Structures are given as structure tokens and as C-alpha cells.
Amino acid sequence: MSTPARPVFTFGAFRLDPADRRLRRDGVPLDLPPKAFDALALLVERAGRLVSKDDFYATLWPRTVVSEANLNKYVWQLRRTLGDGDWIETVPKLGYRFVAAVTVDDATRELPGPLVAPMPAVDAHARASARRVLVGTMAIALAIALVAAAWLRHTQPATTASIAATGTSPLPVARRTLVFAATVPAGDVSHALASSLPALLAEEMALSEDLRVLPRADVGLQFPDLLRPARADDRATGERDYARWRALGADLVASTTLAPEPALGADGLRVDVRVYDIARAELVERIGVAGSGDHLDALVAQAGDRLRNALGLNPLSAALARVRRATSPADADAARAYGEALELESERMANGARERLAFVVARSPGFVPGWIEYARSLYDGGFAAQATAAARDGLVHAAAAPRELRLALEAVQYEASGAWPQAIASYDALYRFYPDRVDYALRLASAQLWGGRPDDADALLASLRRQPGLADDARVLLQDAEIAKQRGDFTRARATATRLLGRADELGAPHLRARALLIRGTAANQLKDHDAAQVDLAAARAAFVAADDAFFVARSDVRLALLAQSRNDLDAAGQRLRAALPVFERLGAQWDENIAIGNLVNVDLQRGDNREARELTERSLALSRTMGDHAGENWALAQLAGFAFAAGQTRAALAAADQAIAGCRAAGDTRNLAWTLADRAQYLDLAGRTDDAVASADEALRQAQAIDDATAQSIALRTRGTAELHGGRDDAARRDLEQALALARRSDEPLYAALAALALADASLEAGDAQAARTRLAPAIAELERSGARGALAQARALQARASAALGEHAAAREQLAASERGAAGADYVDALAARYAAVQLAAAAGDGTRARALAATLRGELEARELAGAARRVDALLAARR
């Protein structure tokens, strides 16, 4: 008698017929999407057993790469369809299990798990009861064996779930955490190949669902020396440094030796792995395998199988065994290049690392970790467009890779392309399925931060801190400081850095300590605590010098330059930045190089060195375009607009500003947009387009308010007030300028407060109140002298001369004008313009009408040639006022 190929299942009020693809509840058909139905059939057919994520993907999407969210969606649909009750259990990181009792209508088919056979007769009932008792006894025996095996190798006993009444629920064992120490190369084996081995074995062992492997980045963050290939004579230092391994949260540390195997020919290699139990501080396992370097993937797989067996882990499932090739490069050349890239990355030689990784993915395109490293290296260096393309190319080759790797590569692609909602979804899925991977949680928090969801990032970090051992975890503290910095909460950033400093001291991690000092010093500078900032930043730099870390020495120089700039020591700031630039260029750290260039441009502008500032801005523009850094490109375009305006190219300046504004809008770059709109308003005002200038300043103010940038708001109000003043709207102008001054003072920006005071002094002169102008100017001039802002100081001296002339103090006015003209030498045209106005007014005030008219005619001609009709009208107004 024939039996159906697939039985019919009953659970609760439901009846599932996979062959007819029908699900009924109390006899009523229910609709399910095809993929949801397939997922339910897979779960029910394996009721009581874990269905891994890879099993789902192999069954539901055998030839397609999809987001983790797809599986989540169908499981959610199933739970909603089935309603109240415990139907589907989530097994974190691993997959799902159907936990309800299931009856199989086909009595000839036995399914493992909590299944109840149909009971048409007493003898059938007896047989079913006997089977349940037998399975329960076997499960208990297996549990005892597993616990005993775990105890022998691990001091923390395996946690066990209580055995269900049926005796058929799986017995989970606590996942231990394994970390790989540096490899010891023997004979003529290259250090590069030795560097790659721990990373490749880590990827291989990470396929084990009952083991957690500590990511390489987590080790390097706190103890970078533990990743460097070890010498034979100091091997024990790395593998038996139990205190540091314990601080990383590891239970087991594996140390590997890679040596030639002459018996297998010139390409023969031998891998020996020694595993130490950290809590017991003793060697617990040792394995060795040999094979051909031309088939390194097979050698790594062989070592992984032997190591799993030695540690009492489950063998890989058939699905995982099929995809393991994607976790190792195909041959020794690709592995050697991968190791070289890892070494270069540890030395922060980004250009060299990217070159080697490009070779790796070209040589071994199916090696997905290589694509992930390559795409992330590009992205971290600022090459967003190239990183997106690399991740996309990698996904083409990742169809046969483990699901975790495919999803991680997808996440990098979304992150690099700025598709933050998708990046957030990808990292959220990774963290939910792998909740013990703190690095996925932190990448999720970073994506939330840059994706405009800082509150979600803060909430995620708060949940992490509540987990055992993570309250003062260095990784969590570093991310917390970054979020605080991006939110402008430098008090919080400083406090977090202090906690990180304490944690680094507990761990005995000098490099981490230096990074904490760098963060704290940067925050202190933002909080205007310059003395404390100097102490922390100098100490951080000295520590990085001692560690021979050129990259972080250069980063420290940039922070010290910003501190010097805050103290108005422009010479020191310029020296620091010029020292950092060639280091970043040599290391291929283009992102940091561009930041240093931008800061040096600001120093040069403040010093009045427009020639070098323009050259550096053009360099920044080229670098930004190479990297695909739209924010950097927009900033550079805005700066070049200013240089064009100063050179008399008003139309070109407005066109460049419009191009920068369009770029800012497209990139959602609100901060640069606010500043560029304010610059554009100034150009329009001087060009005589007052209404357009006011409108541009209005929008600048709205954008600055949207991001709560008080400095940008002050600038926008000052620009709008100046345009209103020139348009005859005196009351509105004064209100805006007073508000600009108050905002600058409230945000502790003395330079911008001084600039607002200059605008108010100009308004007082326009209103004929020279004494009020002089009162405004005195503290502003003192601040500008202290800050070294030559161009603004030249303007202030010119206003001072006009005030003195209006009060009849002609000798003082001449001295002040001479000081203004000296200060304006080498400054841009707009900064020098105030002295030219003052010269006209002084000549008129002294009764030398002929000279005043001649000066005015020359100046008016220049301004008209520059298409600055608004500025030209001011010359006529000055002459008219004296008549």
C-alpha cells in the first residue's frame, strides 16, 4: 500500500498538509505567502529540532542573496497567523525551533522532537509511550556526557535546560569563547602567511554554532601586540598571557605554529594548534595537520575539523560544510597577500593594505572575508564610492558564503553608499541573530548615529551597558564617546573618556590609555578648558610616540593644532598641521589628510595667507572627489567661491557657491549648507542684490536652527543684519546684529562675537553715532588682537578711524587708518575694502573734497568692474554724508 511522500501534521487547532500546500485552523483554510508556508513546513517537519538560518536560506532562497529581514518577516507572519501560544522559539544566533506538540498522520514516519503519534489503538499508544521513555533516557545520558566533556575542557560548566516531559528537547551547551593568538612562523615560512593563519582559522571556527570566536578587531583595539607574529622564544608570552585574554572575555586561547613540511614537497605546510584553558591556565588540547600550501583552504578546513573534534564541538552541518570554502583563500599566494594586508593594517599603512586586499579578491574572488576587509578598508579611508562598488562586486561572488558573511558584506555596501536605513536594518539583523557579537551592536549604533537616529544609538548603548561585563567595556565606551562628540555633548564625552582611561589602566593597555587621553583632551578643548586639554593631548602624543604609532601621533598633532588655534597661537597650529599632513599622505589616510588640510586652510585664512589657503583648498577638492567625499567637496567649493569673490570674479563666486549649495542639499549636508548660504548672502549683498541676500541669510538661519548650531546661527544673523542695514532696514538690522552678538557670546565664540560687534559699530556709524561705534569697537579690537585675525582687525581699525574722523579727531584717525592699511596688506579684497572706505571718509572729513572724490572714483571703478554695485553705492553714500 502506497504512502504519501510527505505526511500531514496536526498541532493544536491547526492541520498542515505540505503536499497540497494547505494550512487549516479548525478546518478553515488560512492564506500564507509561499515563502512563509515553506518556512512553516520546514519547522514542523523538524519539530523539536533547531532549524538553522542556513537551512532556511538553502530551502527558501537556494540561489538568491536576500536580507536577513526577509526571514524575520516570514517568521513574524507565522507567529501572527498561529496566534497566542508557544509555537516558534527563537534560538539566538542560530535559528528557530518549532516547540509545540505535533501529531503525524502518517504513522509509518517518525519525526524527532516533541511529536505525539496518533493513538487509534491501545497497542499503538503503548509503543508511542515506550518510544518517548527511551528517547528521554538517551537524552539524559547524552546530557551527562556533554556536561562531563565540557567540564574536562572548561571550568565553567555547561548550562542545561530542564528536560521536557517528552524527553526529546535538545540540550544546549553554553558557548565558549575562543581567541587566536599570533602565529609563530618556523623555518622559511613568511610572516605574512603566518599573519593570515589566525584570521583564517578564526573564520573557519566561527562556522561552529556552539562556539564563539572573538573578532580580531576586538583584540587589536585593546592589545594590538597580541596580533603580531611571535618569535619562537617569546611564544609563551602571547599564548599564556592569561590576564589579558581573560580581560577580553575569552575562555580558550589557541596558539598556532606554521612550518614547512618537506615530506609533502616544496609547497608542504604543517599547522600545529595548541589550545589553553584560560581559567585553569593550562594546555588542554593540541592538534596538528599537514597539507599543500597550494590548497590552503583544504588545510584550514582540515585543521578546523580536527580542532572541533578535540574541543568536543558538533561537526559542521552539511549546509555549512558546503559554504566553508568561502571563508578561506584558495591558495598560499592569496593567503600571503591577505596576511600582508593585515600586517599593514595593524601598522596603519592603509594604501599598502588596500593594494594587497585588491590582489586578494582578484586572486581569490570567492573569499568573502577578503571582500569585507577590502570594502571596509576603502570606506574607512574615505573612498565611499569605491567601497560601495567593491562590496557590490563581492556580493556577486558571495552566493555560496555563510549567511553571516553575506549579510556583513551587504551592511558595508549600504554603509558606504550612505543608505543608512538599509545599513541599520542589516546590522540590526546581524546583532539580533548574533547577540554575543558586541561589534555588530556597535556598528548598528554607529549606523543609527550617522543615519540620523542618535536617540536609538544611545538606547542601544544603554542596553549594552546593562549586560554583564559590558558596563565599562572599552569598545562600548569608545562608541559612547563618539556619539557624545557627534551630539555636541563634550561634557559627556569627557566623562566617558575618563572612564575609558580607568578601564585602560585596569587592563594594562597603554595604547587604549593614549586613545582615552586623546578623546578627553579633545573634549576639554571644546569645553574651553585649554590647560587640561594641553596636558591630556601632550600625554597622548608622547604615548603614541613611545608605541611608534605614526598615525595616532599625527592625529594628536591635529588635535594639538586645534588647541593652539583656540589659544590664537597660529604659528604653532600651522606647524602641527604641516607635520601631520605628510604622515597621513604616506600612510594613505586620506580622510584624516583632508581634515588636516581643512584646518590648515582656516589657519592660513586667519593669518591672511590666501595664496597657500587657495592651493590647499584645491588639493582638498581633488582629494574629496577622488574619495567620493561629498561633504568635503562641498566645503572646498564654498571656499573656492570665497577666493573667486576676493579675486573680483563675482559671477564665478556665485556660481561656485550655488554649486556647493546644490551639493549640500543633495548630500543632506545641513551644516555646510548653512555656512555656504551665509557666504552667498554676503556676496549678494555686496553685489547690490539686497533682497536676495536677505533671503539667502534667512535660509542659512533656518538650516542652522535645524541642527542647533549656535555659531552658524550667529553668522546667519550677522549676514542678514548687514544686508538689512544696507537696504535701509535699520531697526531689523540692529535686532539681528544684537541677537548675533548674544548667540556668539552664549556659545563662547569670542571671535564671532567680535565680528558681530564690528557690524554693530558700522550700524552706529551709519546712524551718525560715532561714540557708540567707538564703544563697540574697543573690546572687539582687543579680542581680534588676541586672536590674530588680521583681516578682521584691519576692518576694525578702519571703522575706528571713521569714528575718530566723525568726532573730529583727525590725527588719531590718520594713525588708525595707517594701521588698518598695514593690516590689510596681503589680506583679501573685502578685508581691505574697509580701509578704502575709511580713506574716502577721512579725506572728506578733513575738507579735502578733491582727494575724497578722486579716491571715491577710483574705488567705485574697481567695485563696478567687480560687479559689486552694492559696495559702490556705499562709496557714494559716504561722500553724500560728508556734504
From TrEMBL:
Highest rank taxon of the organism: Bacteria
Transmembrane segments: 133-152
DNA-binding region: 6-100
Any one GO biological process: phosphorelay signal transduction system
Ranges for domain OmpR/PhoB-type: 6-100
CDD domains in the record: trans_reg_C
Signal peptide: none
SMART domains linked: TPR, Trans_reg_C
GO molecular function, one term: DNA binding
Keyword set, alphabetical order: DNA-binding, Membrane, Transmembrane, Transmembrane helix
PROSITE patterns registered for this protein in UniProt: OMPR_PHOB
Family annotation (Pfam families): Trans_reg_C
Annotated InterPro entries: OmpR/PhoB-type_DNA-bd (IPR001867), Sig_transdc_resp-reg_C-effctor (IPR016032), TPR-like_helical_dom_sf (IPR011990), TPR_rpt (IPR019734), WH-like_DNA-bd_sf (IPR036388)
PANTHER family in UniProt: HTH-TYPE TRANSCRIPTIONAL REGULATOR RV0890C-RELATED, REGULATOR-RELATED
Protein's UniProt name: DNA-binding winged helix-turn-helix (WHTH) protein
High-level lineage: Bacteria, Pseudomonadati, Pseudomonadota, Gammaproteobacteria, Lysobacterales
